[in-house]
Amino acid sequence: MQISLGPVPYYWPQEQLLAFYDDVADSPVDIVYLGEVVCAKRRSLTHEQWLNLGRRLRAAGKSVVFSSLALLEAGSELGQLKRIAANGEFPIEANDVAAVQLARGVPFIAGASLNIYNSRTLEVFAAQGMTRWVPPTELGRSALKALQTTRPNAVQTEVPVWGRMPLAWSARCYTARHHDLPKDSCEFRCLEHPDGLRLKTREDHDFLCLNGTQVQSWQRLNLLDRLPEISDLGVDVVRFSADHPAVLDLVTLTRQALDGNKASGLTMRLDAVPDSNSECCGYWLDQPGMTGQIAPS
Amino acid sequence: MNAMELVCPAGNLQGLKTAIDSGADAVYFGFRDATNARHFAGLNFSTENAAEGIDYAHNRGKRVFLAINTYPQPHNWSAWQNAVDQAADLGVDVLIVADTGVLDYACERWPDLALHLSVQASATSAEAIAFYHERFGIRRAVLPRVLSLSQVQRVCADSPVEIEVFGFGSLCVMVEGRCLLSSHVTGKSPNSFGACSPGEFVRWTETPAGLESRLNGVLIDRYGPREHSGYPTICKGRYHVAGQTTYAMEQPVSLNSLPLLPELMRAGVAALKVEGRQRSPAYVRRVTRVLRSAIDACASDPKTFTPNDTWMSELAGLSEGSQTTLGAFSRYWQ
Asked: What are the chain B neighbours of A184 within 8 Å (beta carbons)?
C-alpha cells in the first residue's frame, strides 16, 4: 500500500508550512495533497507558490495532487477552483461536484465529501475520469468491502487511517464567532489556532474541533492497528491527515511496518501528539464515529 | 412578476391535505423508511396513503413531490431502487433526489419522471448544478442554506435549471448532505439513515445542576430554571470553548426569509420551500397560510412589499427558541 498525506487543514503561517513540506520531501510519503480546503481567505501561499511547492515535491519523488475547497460559495472561490482545475501539471482532488464539472475529463481523485456511498455512484464518477476515490468519512468496513468487489477497473481506493475527521462545513465561521468578529473582518484569527479550537461539553469532555468554517472531531482517527485488515480489502492507499507536524514520524513507522510485512497490526501512538491516548475508530467498525474515545455518562 | 411556487411539507396524509387546503402549490413527502431525510417514527407515507394524497392534490390542481433524498449503501441499495419504481407507478410529479447513483438509475429507468436535486446533494454553485443537469436532466435544484443573498442571485443567473430556496423552518447551520455531527455521536446520519439526532438516542434528565439534554450520552445542553429547553441537535447546543460557555455554533432558531421575498423573486427563484415534515398539521396550516399571503402580496406589488407584523409574529411563535433569523442569506449572520 502507498501512503498519502492529506492537505493541512489549519491556517499555518508560510514559514511553518514551508518547513513542514521540507520535512515531507524527506519523508517516506508517496502522495502529497496540497492546497487550501477549508477557507479561501487563508493565503499563506499564493497560487504560484503552491505550484512551485508542488514542483519541488515532485522533484523529490512525490506524487502531487491539488485539493479543492470543500464548500464553494463566493464567485472568487469558484475562480480559485478554476485555476486549480486548469493547472495543467497536477491532478486534482475534487471535494465538490463543481470540481468534477470543471475538470472536464481531466483525471481526478474523488474526495470524501463527494459522497460515494454505492457502486452506481462509483461508476458514474469513474466514467467522468476518476482515477481514485476516498470513501465518505462515515462509511464502515462492511460497505467498503462490498464496494471493493464491484469497483470499476483501474479505479484505486484510498482510506484515511489517521487524523482528525472532517464532520461538517458551514457558511458561518466559528473561529470568528468565538472571537466575536464578523466573518468578513475575521482578522485571520485562525492563525492563532494552529491545532484548531477545542470544543468541550459542559462536563469537560473533549468533543469537537472548530476550524474556521469547518467542524472536525477533536479525537483523531487511528486505524493503524488495522492496516493488515485494510490491506486485505484491496485498499491501494492509506491517508494521514497533515493536522500535526509529528504525523511524519507516524508515517515513517508505518512505512517500516508495511515493508516488514508485519502480520499483526501496529499499535502506534505518539507522545508528541496531544491527546494521543484518546483516539477513535468507530466508523470503521460500523459504529458511531466517536467510539473508542469520549466516555460519556 | 411570477409568484414563486410554495412547496410545503407533508409528514402524513392529514398534513398533506392541510397543506393543500391552506394554499400550498406543491407538497413533498417521503416513504416510511430510510430513503428520505425525515425518517422519524410515526411519520411518512405507506403506498396506499401516498396514492390517496396524490389524488387529493391532483384533483385540486396541485403538485406532489416525493423525497428519496438519502444515500443508499450496497446492503440496502435495492430499497432506494424500489422507492423510485414505486414513485413512478404512483404518478408523483417530481422526485427529489440527492444520491448520484439514484439519480443515474431514475434517469435511465424512468426518463419522463421529473427530477429535482435535493438540498442533500450540497450543490452550491451553477457549476455543480450543471453537472447534474447535463448527466441526469434535473429540472430544479434546491440550494443549501449556506449562501448569502448575493450568492443566491448569482447562482440563479448562471444556473441551467430553476432554483428553489428555503423560506421558513428549522435552520440547518451546516451545509446539508455533508454534516456528520449526528453520525459521529449516534452512528446514524441524515445521509445514511435519514435523521439528525434520532429520538432513540435523546435523553432528558433533571439534575441538581439543571435539566440536561443528552445525545447518546453526550451532554448537549443544560438549562436553568427559567430557560426554554430545545431539542438536542449538536449544532445548537452549549459548550465550553477556551473559557467561554456558549452556543459555539448556533442557538435554537428558525430561518425566516420573508423580508427577502422581493429580492428572491427578482432574482428569479422559482420556488420557496417550507421545512418541517416532522411538524404537526396545525403548524403546517399556520405557516402555509402566512407564506401564501406573503407570496401573493409580493407578487402583486414587489416594490412596496414589506412583511407585516402579524405574519412575522405568527412565524416567530412557531420557531425554535421563538426566534427567527435570515441565516446565511445575511453576511452578518455568517
From this structure: 331, 334
Q: B157: left (phi > 0), else alpha (psi -120 to 50), else beta? A: alpha
Q: Give the model confidence (pLDDT) of A130-163 as tens digits.
A: 999 999 999 999 999 999 999 999 999 999 999 9
Place of cell 433526489: B97
Residues B210 and B271 in one domain: no
The three three-digit cell numbers of residue B291, written as one number: 407564506
Q: Among B192, B217, B246, give the residue marking a domain's end.
A: B246
- Sort out which chain B residues have CB atoms less than 8 A from A83's CB and list them: none
Nearest to A206 by CA among A294, A290, A274: A294
User: What grid cell was written down for B40?
Assistant: 422519524
Q: Which residues pair with B170 in a beta bridge?
A: B254
Are B271 and B136 part of one and the same domain? Answer: yes
Q: How many CB atoms lie within 10 A of CB B32?
A: 18
- Which chain B residue has the Cα nearest residue A77? B125
Answer yes or no: is B300 within a domain.
yes
Contact B73 A143 (CB under 8 A): yes
Instruction: Name the B residues in 282-321 with CB < 8 Å from any A CB.
Output: none
Are B240 and A296 inside 8 Å of each other by CB? no
Which one of A118, A123, A290 has the shortest CB-CB distance to B72?
A118
Distance CA A208, CA A128 (A): 35
A2-164+220-270 adopts what CATH topology?
A: TIM Barrel (3.20.20)
Q: Give me the CATH number covering residue B275.
A: 3.20.20.70
| Total domains present in chain B | 2
What's the whole-number average pLDDT of chain A? 92
Choose the mutation target among B108, B109, B120, B127 for the interface with A, i.e. most A CBs under 10 Å.
B127
DSSP per-residue string spanning B250-287: --S-EEE-GGGHHHHHHHT--EEEEP-TTS-HHHHHHH
Q: What is the pLDDT of residues B30-85, one digit of tens each?
A: 999 999 888 988 899 999 999 999 999 999 999 999 999 999 999 999 999 999 99
Task: With cut-offs at 50, 70 and 90, classify the pLDDT of residue B290.
Answer: very high
Residue B47 sits in the same domain as residue B137: yes
Q: Give A294's pLDDT tier (boundaries 50, 70, 90).
A: very low
For residues B290 and B315, state if they share a domain.
yes
Banded model confidence at residue A225, pLDDT cuts 50, 70, 90: confident
Q: What is the pTM of this model?
A: 0.96
Domain ranges of chain A: 2-164+220-270
Yes or no, beta carbons of A286 and B187 under 8 Å apart:
yes
The parent domain of residue B239 ranges over 181-246
- Choosing from B246, B266, B283, the residue where a domain stops is B246
